[in-house]
Amino acid sequence: MTKVHFVKSARKDNRIVKKGEPYYWWKHPYKPMEYSKTKPTEIQTTSSPFRRELLQLQAYIQHLTDPDDLDDIIDGIRSLADECEQNLANMPEYLQDTSEPGQLLLDRFDALNEWADELEAVDREIVEGASDEELPEIKQRIMDDIWLIKYEGE
Length: 154
Fold this sequence. Notes:
By secondary structure, this protein is mainly alpha-helical. The chain has helices at 42-45, 49-62, 69-89, 93-96, 100-120, 124-128, 135-150; strands at 4-7, 23-26, 34-36. It is built from seven helices and three strands.
């Protein structure tokens, strides 16, 4: 993950802050430095497209209010699984089963499809009839699967 730096007081004016104001900066490999007045989100600091997609799904789940939104989440998960499968297919055949990246892609593909299957089996009426107190627990159960997939292989 990209390291985020905090500057208490800017030495001179720049496009983000005036002299003396605090700011954050970070840099992805082979890209220009990025600046912000507020602490950057994990989506901003990750350079992994896979992680970025998972984090976007996580944000979408956090704002889940309508059971029909589950279909969009499932579509996003299936799309991410398809990307893993395509990346695996693009690897040389001898690396697909024997290499660590190949195994990681295969594990992610399986975990994402399993997660999507579980979400398809969710009773929509439970989500629809959930009270304001129950909805955070339902969201958390969905989110727990993200963390298992996100940190697998690290």
